[in-house]
Design goal:
With 261 residues, the chain is an all-alpha fold. It is 72% helix and 0% strand. The protein has helices at residues 3-33, 51-61, 68-74, 91-101, 117-130, 135-165, 167-203, 212-257. The longest helix has 46 residues, at 212-257.
Length: 261
C-alpha cells in the first residue's frame, strides 16, 4: 500500500467518525426537545409471580456473580438448601449447621444434637478413666503443688540472699588467695634468679641457660632446694609433735596434782 493511499484511508475514517458523532448529538438533542405524554405511561409496573420470571430477576440482581453457596454464606444463610454431598446428612455436619445458623441451619428437630444413651455411657467411662479423682481432690492437689513450688522458690531466694551477704567476704578471700599466689610466684622467680646467679658465680662467667652444664647444675640446685624444703617441713612437723606431747604431759601433771574430792 502506498503512502498516498494510506493517508486517504485515514482521512476517510476520521470523517466517518465525525459524521457519526454529529448525527448522534443531533438525535439526542431532538429526543430532549420531544414532549413526553406521561398520561400514556402504565401506572402499575410489570411484575409477575412466575418462577421463571423470579429466577431471572434473582440472577439479574446478583451482580457479584458469586456461586449460590458463597452468596448464601455471605448473606448469613446456610450454604445449601438441600443436601448435595453424602456428609450433609451426617449428624456432625447438621450439628455444625445448627450451631452456626440456628434453626435455619437444618430441618431436623433440636433433640438430634443431644448424645444418645450409648454415647453418654462412653463419655462417662472416658471421664472415669481420664479423671479418676473428683474436682475437689484435684483442686487440693493443685493447691499442694502450688504451696510446694512457693516453698522451693522461697528457699532458693533465701539461699541467694545468704550467698549475696557473703560476697564481700568472698572477695576478701579471693584477693588474699590471689595475693598469696602472686607472692609464691614472685618468691619462685626470685629463687630461680638466685640459683641462676649462683650457677654463674660457680662457673665464673656468664653461661647460656641452654648449655647442658647450666641445665645439669640447675637441676642439682633444684634437688637441693627440694631436699631442704622437705627437711624443713619434717622438722616443723617434729616440733609440732613435740609441743603437743609437752602440752599433754603438762595437762596430765595438772590433773594429778588436783585434790581428789
Amino acid at each position: 500500500m502506498s503512502l498516498r493511499r494510506w493517508i486517504c484511508d485515514v482521512i476517510v475514517q476520521r470523517n466517518v467518525r465525525f459524521q457519526g458523532a454529529v448525527v448522534g448529538r443531533f438525535l439526542a438533542t431532538e429526543a430532549k426537545n420531544e414532549d413526553i405524554d406521561i398520561t400514556t405511561a402504565d401506572e402499575q409496573p410489570i411484575y409477575s409471580d412466575e418462577p421463571q420470571y423470579q429466577e431471572k430477576l434473582t440472577k439479574q440482581r446478583n451482580k457479584s456473580r458469586l456461586s449460590p453457596r458463597d452468596r448464601n454464606v455471605l448473606m448469613g444463610k446456610p450454604p445449601y438448601e438441600q443436601p448435595i454431598e453424602w456428609y450433609h446428612n451426617t449428624v456432625r455436619y447438621k450439628k455444625r449447621m445448627l450451631g452456626r445458623y440456628g434453626f435455619e441451619g437444618n430441618e431436623e428437630p433440636v433433640g438430634f444434637a443431644w448424645p444418645t444413651p450409648e454415647e453418654v455411657k462412653i463419655l462417662q467411662e472416658y471421664e472415669r478413666v481420664a479423671f479418676p479423682i473428683s474436682l475437689q481432690e484435684r483442686w487440693k492437689e493443685l493447691e499442694e503443688k502450688k504451696r510446694i513450688k512457693a516453698e522451693k522458690i522461697k528457699a532458693r531466694e533465701d539461699k541467694i540472699a545468704e550467698k549475696l551477704s557473703k560476697v564481700d567476704q568472698w572477695i576478701v578471700e579471693l584477693n588474699a588467695r590471689v595475693a598469696k599466689k602472686e607472692a609464691e610466684m614472685e618468691a619462685a622467680r626470685l629463687r630461680k634468679e638466685r640459683m641462676v646467679e649462683e650457677i654463674r658465680q660457680h662457673f665464673g662467667f656468664r653461661i647460656s641457660p641452654h648449655d647442658e652444664r647450666f641445665k645439669t647444675m640447675l637441676e642439682q640446685k633444684e634437688k637441693e632446694e627440694r631436699k631442704k624444703k622437705k627437711e624443713a617441713k619434717k622438722k616443723a612437723k617434729e616440733e609440732k609433735l613435740k609441743s603437743m606431747i609437752q602440752k599433754m604431759n603438762q595437762e596430765q601433771e595438772t590433773d594429778s596434782t588436783k585434790p581428789v574430792e
